[in-house]
Specification:
heterodimer; A: about 260 residues; mainly alpha; Ferritin; 10 helices; about 65% helix; about 0% strand; B: about 150 residues; alpha/beta; GMP Synthetase, Chain A, domain 3; 2 domains; 7 strands
């Protein structure tokens, strides 16, 4: 444990925390705009869980970084190029179906990843994963159910869900890419190689898409650059201008 | 003052209501994981229900306020994530109070067993989520009343 590269650990934690932060913010944009009240509440609750998980991941990241920051300073005072989320979570909400399709594609990955992280050699990582996995089990049950309900729904809802899947699927592969940071985590027993999660993920996704009467697109091309920070989508900067506005305009504001 | 016993502190905490569901106490909810004296400092270990639950900070404030009112001067609140909170830790007293209040208590089957209003068993799920992170929305087809169900996790 002691010889874990702390820079790699920080990168790893930022990836986890930035995924839940950016997706949590995205989902919260639905507050007050959902098609029905129950879905509004469900989306707000999902966003809340994701932001709660962000506090834990980024809280630990700040501790590892050791510069006296905290989860808030990492969330609100970094610029786009310092974020390490995958591109999938930055994408616009689109319609309700597209939002739930994105949610399912992410939930499926997160539920598998957290299941592995519960066995992490780092007790702090394991504890957060144990906590979050209970919430995510609930998320994936709902997002999978909604994808099936809308996919195997009316011709209109089916077509929209197929279009959402076609649009989002080329962003899925980034969640399974590996680099030196991942290799360091594997070596230290902190986390699995993301690539090793792919088979289980594909099985889950194809089972749900079959039930939803949707076709998983062919082709292995994947957009990438988010989790390495090489290049984010143009959407991330727009998210940050809204999410970080208050702390930028009134530094240190609290309530 | 003389140092109050741990049992006494648990009783005080059992009188602190949950801020969202005031018919049950924080002890009933199962989130107080430990009370102990470390020297002259009282340490209370608390686990969150849901990681993003906004009630968590209010709960910590309520614990501190209650214990300070009982004369505790040196107090430390510790957050413990593992083992993760489970609804198995809800007390029997708490479960009964929830149902009396109109919230169906959690069951391992994953849904309520009966309507908290009319006790009917002809139930349907309206939404997996409810007014707080810990609840889902259900409806009784017998009396047609919607009600909340305390999610089992």
């Amino acid at each position: 444990m002691a010889d874990v590269d702390q820079k790699a650990l920080l990168q790893f934690l930022l990836r986890l925390g930035d995924n839940t932060l950016v997706l949590g913010h995205r989902v919260s944009e639905w507050c007050g705009h959902s098609p029905v009240l129950e879905e509004d509440i469900a989306l707000a609750n999902t966003a809340l869980d994701l932001i709660g998980q962000t506090q834990l991941w980024l809280g630990l990241a700040a501790e590892v970084e050791g510069k006296g920051g905290d989860a808030d300073s990492l969330a609100f005072l970094r610029d786009a190029w310092d974020f390490r989320c995958v591109l999938l979570v930055e994408l616009p909400n689109g319609d309700f179906g597209q939002t739930l399709m994105r949610q399912f594609l992410f939930d499926a990955w997160q539920s598998i990843m957290l299941g592995r992280l519960i066995k992490s050699s780092d007790a702090r990582v394991a504890a957060i994963a144990e906590k979050a996995s209970k919430e995510v089990a609930y998320h994936v049950e709902r997002s999978a159910g909604t994808v099936v309900g809308l996919g195997d729904g009316t011709p209109e809802s089916h077509d929209r869900m197929q279009a959402a899947l076609d649009y989002l699927y080329p962003y899925v592969g980034e969640m399974f890419l590996s680099d030196d940071t991942d290799a360091a985590m594997v070596a230290a027993g902190i986390a699995p190689d993301p690539a090793s999660l792919r088979d289980e993920y594909d099985a889950l996704v194809s089972r749900v898409m079959d039930e939803a009467t949707l076709a998983v697109p062919e082709g292995a091309y994947t957009h990438k650059g988010g989790r390495t920070g090489y290049m984010h989508t143009e959407h991330l900067g727009h998210i940050l201008t809204s999410m970080q506005w208050l702390q930028r305009a009134y530094p240190g504001a609290e309530w | 003052m003389t140092r109050p016993g741990v049992k006494q502190v648990w009783e005080w905490l059992d009188a602190v209501p949950d801020p969202e569901i005031p018919v049950i106490s924080l002890v009933d909810l199962g989130i107080i994981r430990g009370v102990e004296w470390q020297g002259d400092t009282l340490t209370v270990t608390v686990t969150p229900t849901y990681s993003g639950c906004p009630a968590t900070s209010v709960i910590n404030l309520d614990i501190e306020t209650a214990l300070r009112a009982h004369g505790i001067e040196k107090l430390e609140l510790k957050r413990q994530l593992s083992p993760a909170w489970t609804t198995d830790w809800l007390s029997g007293k708490g479960r009964a109070a929830l149902e009396e209040y109109g919230i169906a208590p959690p069951t391992p089957a994953g849904g309520p067993t009966r309507c908290p209003q009319c006790k009917g068993s002809n139930l349907e799920k309206l939404s997996q989520f409810g007014s707080t992170p810990c609840k889902a929305q259900w409806r009784c087809r017998d009396c047609l009343e919607p009600f909340e169900y305390f999610k089992c996790i």
